[in-house]
Amino acid sequence: MPHRITTHASLLARVSMPGDADAWREFCLRYGDLIRGFVRRRGAHGCDADDIMQDVLMTLTKSMPGFRYDPGKGKFRGYLKTLVIRAIYKKTFQKRRDVQLEDIEAASANAGVDEEAEMMWEVEWRQYHIAQAMETILVEFNQADRDAYQRYAIEACGAQETADVLGMNVDQVYKAKSRILRRLGELIEIQTREEG
Q1: Predicted confidence (pLDDT) per residue in 184-196, tens digit
Q2: Cβ-contact 88, 42 below 8 angstroms
Q3: Which SS3 state, helix, strand or coil, does residue 96 take?
Q4: If you write DSSP's letter for every residue of 61-77 in order, what string do you get?
Q5: Which pTM value belongs to this model?
C-alpha cells in the first residue's frame, strides 16, 4: 500500500498541531529516506546520520507549531533542504575541537549557497519522488508488466531478450514500458506540484 495517505499540505497542517504523533510518523515515513539519502551523499553515516536526522526533526518540532504552509512564500523542499544542510554543518563542526559557536552559526547561515549540496539535494529529491511513485506502480501494475519494465527500461536488456525471458511478445514489453513510464511521469508531476 502506498504511504501517500494525505496530501502534502494537509500533512504539514497536521504536523503543526501539537500532539499529533501519527502525523509525525507519517512525516518520517514520507521524508525520512530523502533526508537520510542526502545525509549519506554528504558523507555522514551510522550514528552521525541518525544524529542529523534527529536534529532536523527537533528543529521541525520547534518550528512547526502554528506553522501555516503558504507555497507563495517559498517551497517546503527548500526549507527542508536548508534545515538538513544546517544540521550537517552543525554535526561536522561539533567534531572539531577548535571551532567556536559563532563559526558554526556562520557556516550554517551560508549553507544555502553550497552549489554541490544544491545538486546533491536535487538528485536526492528526484530519487525520492521516483521511489514514492514506484510504490504506486507496485499496486497499479501486474507483476509481468513490472518485470518487463525492470528488465527493459532499468536493466537495459533488449526487448526481444526481455520478451523471451518473461514469456511475452516484444509488443507487450514495449507497451508495459510505455504505460509504466507514462504513469510514473503523471505521479511525479502530481507530487512535485503538490509539494511545490
Answers
A1: 999 998 887 777 5
A2: yes
A3: coil
A4: HHH-TT----GGG--HH
A5: 0.69
> Taking a C-beta distance cutoff of 8 angstroms, is the pair 187, 131 a contact?
no
Q: How many residues does the chain have?
A: 196
Domains defined for the chain, CATH in brackets: 1-129 (no CATH), 141-196 (1.10.10)
DSSP label of 110? T
Q: What 8-state DSSP symbol labels residue 43?
A: T
- The C-alpha cell of 9 is what? 499540505
Cell digits of residue 80:
527542508
Q: CA 70 to CA 118: how far, in whole Å?
A: 22
Residue 110 CB coordination number (10 Å): 12
Answer for the pair 133, 101: CB distance below 8 angstroms, yes or no. Answer: no
Smallest Cα–Cα separation from 91: which of 59, 55, 58? 55
Over residues 3-58, the pLDDT tens digits come to: 444 456 778 778 877 778 898 888 888 888 889 889 988 888 888 888 898 898 88
Distance CA 1, CA 151 (A): 23
